Backbone:
């Protein structure tokens, strides 16, 4: 688990250094995987329709319900690796 956490932390740092900004769909996927990895399943109420960004983020996170932290970390690592040149 410690090796996975270290690789996840490196992927988080690497994500901030990508040469080009990923598209919005990829950013939402990264957000959802990060939140699932660090905070667990989506909690709280889904934001209302007037909060478009908050609602999209919550939906990306909520779509991962039932996925464990380790699986989410590995998916995040793999996604960031696929974005590197």
Residues:
């Amino acid at each position: 688990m410690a090796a996975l956490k270290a690789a996840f932390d490196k992927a988080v740092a690497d994500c901030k250094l990508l040469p080009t900004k990923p598209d919005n769909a990829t950013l939402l996927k990264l957000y959802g995987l990060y939140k699932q990895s660090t905070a667990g399943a989506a909690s709280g109420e889904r934001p209302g329709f007037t909060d478009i960004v908050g609602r999209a983020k919550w939906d990306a996170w909520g779509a991962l319900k039932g996925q464990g932290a380790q699986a989410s970390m590995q998916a995040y690592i793999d996604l960031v690796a696929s974005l590197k040149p």
User: Anything to note?
Assistant: Residues 21 and 27 are 9 Å apart (CA to CA).
